[in-house]
């Protein structure tokens, strides 16, 4: 069992610093660590520090399962900040439910899920895919290729994007998937198909090292990124730097956060992040969503004064505060966050110019129960 500090609020942290998604999950970990450090430096919660119990699952689902069980059953932890991919979340979920724990999950994802043992801090598809489909069709054209890693998030996101593009009079001209961790030999045939299809844009739900390799191949093929970009929900600032800033200018990201947001809260967040992790470090939706969910937990725990996962599961509902990305609010009905959708285009320095944003936080609709596929972002949020 991990050693225990008397009088501390112990929480589990389950993000991968190794494996195919280590870049983005390390960002989750950094955002979590920064938030905990800031809370502890300010006196903790009711005078007690947060003590993280950290495990590295190595982007392996069996390791997420093992460490989640260890945290809840052996390490005397009730609350976990963790998981990045939908596959890891779904692997951990039965264990969290069995031990009546509480998982804070920070990633944008495909939706169609509700659990009393989870707080979902990432964007839902109506906050990302819907404005992205509008932007691609209106700015670049309606002939879109879909590529993705072969698991639930890419397949479900691509299914929704197909419906959105076709509802706008566009056409999906190709769809292909590769295994997680796929290399150049798997990606070359997909790139050849894209060159033959000549789409107006590519919607990529590839994840991790495969996505990075695909972006490099796209650049080497000489495709005009300004005219025919890759659009994504995941390829944010830190991975852009990993790919090579000279290879990414013009690509598109649908996100609720960008480092370049000009708010006082974000300026403080970026400055603190760089002070802790180095001047060259970049914030991203991966670090920011992890950071804000720790703040959300701390606010709830401060109100309750007791680490009771059942009560903590309910305490954040309806809460709202200013995060680095702007005002966020926990929707009591869905357990997801009201967030402001944005579209960014990558610059030569690997950061993003925000070319479109909603004028207010948008209600999460993880089941697409109230959002009509044919509606546009302008109709919904004007």
Automatic annotation (TrEMBL):
Domain of life: Bacteria
InterPro entries: AmiC_PBP1, Leu_Ile_Val-bd, Peripla_BP_I
Pfam families: Peripla_BP_5
Listed CDD domains: PBP1_AmiC
Record-linked SUPFAM superfamilies: Periplasmic binding protein-like I
One function term, GO molecular function aspect: amide binding
GO biological process entries: amino acid transport
Protein name in the entry: Amino acid ABC transporter substrate-binding protein
Source species of the chain: Marinibacterium profundimaris
């Amino acid at each position: 069992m991990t050693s225990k500090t008397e009088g501390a609020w112990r929480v589990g942290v389950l993000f991968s610093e190794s494996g195919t998604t280590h870049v983005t999950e390390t960002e989750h970990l950094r955002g979590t660590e920064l938030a905990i450090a800031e809370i502890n430096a300010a006196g903790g919660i009711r005078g007690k520090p947060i003590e993280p119990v950290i495990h590295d699952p190595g982007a392996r689902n069996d390791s997420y399962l093992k460490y989640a069980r260890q945290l809840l059953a052996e390490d005397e932890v009730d609350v976990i900040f963790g998981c990045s991919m939908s596959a890891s979340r779904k692997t951990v979920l039965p264990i969290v439910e069995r031990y009546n724990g509480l998982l804070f999950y920070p990633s944008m994802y495909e939706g169609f899920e509700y659990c009393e043992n989870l707080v979902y801090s990432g964007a839902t598809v109506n906050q990302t895919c819907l404005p992205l489909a509008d932007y691609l069709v209106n700015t670049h054209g309606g002939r879109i290729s879909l590529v993705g890693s072969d698991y639930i998030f890419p397949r479900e996101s691509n299914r929704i994007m197909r419906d959105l593009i076709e509802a706008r009079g566009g056409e999906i001209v190709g769809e292909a998937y590769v295994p997680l961790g796929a290399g150049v030999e798997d990606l070359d045939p997909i790139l050849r198909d894209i060159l033959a299809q000549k789409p107006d844009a590519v919607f990529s739900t590839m994840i991790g090292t495969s996505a990075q390799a695909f972006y490099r191949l796209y650049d080497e093929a000489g495709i005009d990124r300004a005219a025919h970009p890759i659009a994504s929900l995941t390829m944010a600032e830190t991975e852009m730097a990993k790919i090579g800033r000279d290879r990414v200018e013009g690509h598109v990201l649908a996100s609720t956060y960008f480092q370049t947001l000009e708010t006082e809260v974000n300026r403080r967040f970026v400055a603190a992040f760089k002070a802790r992790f180095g001047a060259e470090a970049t914030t991203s939706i991966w670090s920011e969503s992890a950071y804000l969910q720790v703040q959300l937990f701390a606010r709830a725990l401060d109100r309750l004064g007791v680490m009771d996962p059942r009560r903590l599961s309910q305490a954040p509902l309806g809460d709202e505060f200013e995060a680095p990305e702007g005002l966020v609010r926990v929707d009591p009905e869905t357990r997801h966050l009201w967030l402001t959708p944005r579209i960014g285009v990558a610059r030569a320095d690997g950061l993003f110019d925000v070319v479109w944003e909603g004028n207010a936080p948008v209600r999460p609709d993880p089941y697409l129960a109230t959002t009509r596929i044919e509606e546009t972002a302008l109709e919904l949020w004007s």
